[in-house]
Amino acid sequence: MISEIEGHGIEKGVEQQVRGKTYKVDLITKARIELVVPDDEAEKIVAAIQKAALTGHIGDGKIFVHPVEDAVRVRTAERGDAAIR
Predict the structure, then answer these.
(1) How confident is the model at residue 9 (pLDDT cuts 50, 70, 90)?
(2) Which residues fall within 8 angstroms of residue 22, CB to CB, at 6 or more apart?
């Protein structure tokens, strides 16, 4: 799932010039990507995202890894890994 969100990290916003005037924009448009993956693929996926997102500059983002207690595919009632593969 990909969501367009607004926020700021350590950069605390940016300054933009519009028609010769400088404005401080506190909230920056960002993308939030949420994935649910099998445990055995998690590290490989984290490494791939980290490699693709790395610019070496402030604002590269963060990756949060959370456990998912269970998953259920509504159509078939499959649970766990079977529901997300």
Answers:
(1) confident
(2) 15, 16
Q: How far is CA 84 from CA 39, 40, 71, in A?
A: 11, 13, 7
Q: Which H, E and C letters describe 21-45, residue by residue?
A: EEEEECCEEEEEECCCCCHHHHHHH
Other CB atoms within 10 A of residue 21 CB: 7
Residue 72, CA distances (Å) to 37, 41, 79, 81 in order:
13, 19, 5, 9
Partners of 25 in beta bridges: 14
Cα 67 from Cα 46, distance rounded (Å): 14
What is the pTM assigned to this prediction?
A: 0.72
CB atoms within 10 A of CB 67: 6
